[in-house]
Design brief:
mainly beta, single chain, 2 helices, Porin, 298 residues
């Protein structure tokens, strides 16, 4: 076996462990939660209308009548995976545009020809450039879509591809109750050496409910996510409690993973700034993940 094949074999094993219990034939970094609030709620945000940070789960959530929004996020995942996200949300009278740039890397992957000391190390790099749009069909129905361009580099091999997200969200006649449905990461990544691979397509369906009691609001949410090409289903639960529109406590749970389930997080809002943090613990000695996000509205 030559050096390049050994490197790619090792990398494939590393990526499978790293990217959240590997759930696709390719571009597994797209499965990682990239901002803190959705991560802390177990991903149960498909019906989160008007929330920019949830637009990666459902592009219809990009819709907004508010000011211009900016989102910055840093993720420290397990196995030395780091991700950075920069995005902006720009509302118009006819709809809302969103632009997002995501960069992920896995550092310190060892290069070996035979057992013994490594010959060196390299960094696997992944980048996603996404443009989305959401609009209001009626006072109750919102739809959205997003196109993404992907670039990946593993050692000396590179590949590019395109993906598509589609979604809809609905404010039901029941006050505070919303529903959403989405299809994300539909597309293909070009071949690295011989064969192309499918993106990790996911279909989602869920509902959310908001209750106001004095200075507190409570937001339980539930969802179901199905990995289309592996036919594996995850149930998702989330609960957000917000005091005086300023301080938030979040809990989440997601089934279907061998080494993770519960999530938690905090949020703080002051003036034009929103700070969020998510904590994702892993079992099997894999450690824990931390996600920090900062949002602004101008």
């Amino acid at each position: 076996m030559n050096t390049t094949i050994q490197i790619l074999s090792l990398l494939g094993l590393s990526i499978g462990l790293v990217f959240a219990q590997g759930s696709s034939t390719g571009s597994s970094q797209l499965n990682l939660p990239m901002s803190a609030r959705p991560a802390s709620l177990g991903g149960a945000v498909v019906a989160d209308i008007g929330t920019f940070s949830s637009s990666s789960i459902n592009p219809a959530n990009l819709w907004s009548e508010g000011p211009v929004g900016v989102l910055l996020s840093h993720s420290q995942w397990i196995q030395d995976v780091q991700s950075e996200l920069v995005g902006t949300q720009i509302p118009f009278s006819f709809g809302t545009f969103g632009l997002t740039v995501l960069s992920s890397n896995v550092r310190g992957i060892e290069i070996r020809e035979v057992p013994g000391p490594p010959l060196g190390t390299f960094t696997a790099r992944f980048a996603t450039f996404q443009a989305g749009f959401a609009t209001k069909v009626s006072d109750a129905l919102f739809v959205g879509g997003a196109l993404k361009y992907l670039y990946e580099k593993l050692y000396v091999d590179e590949a590019t591809g395109f993906g598509l997200d589609l979604g809809a969200a609905y404010r039901t006649p029941v006050e505070g109750l919303t529903a959403g449905i989405s299809l994300t990461n539909i597309g293909e990544l070009g071949e690295f050496r011989t064969d192309p691979s499918q993106l990790p397509g996911v279909g989602r369906l869920g509902v959310g409910y908001k209750i106001q009691y004095r200075d507190f609001s409570f937001g339980p949410s539930v969802g179901v996510a199905n990995e289309l090409y592996r036919n594996r289903t995850h149930a998702q639960l989330g609960l957000e409690t917000v005091y005086d529109h300023a301080l938030a406590l979040r809990l989440g749970y997601e089934t279907g993973y061998e080494s993770r389930g519960f999530t938690a997080g905090l949020g703080f809002c002051y003036s034009i700034m929103q700070l969020d943090y998510a904590y994702v613990p892993f079992s099997l000695g894999l450690g824990e993940a931390h996600i920090f996000s900062m949002g602004f509205q101008f």
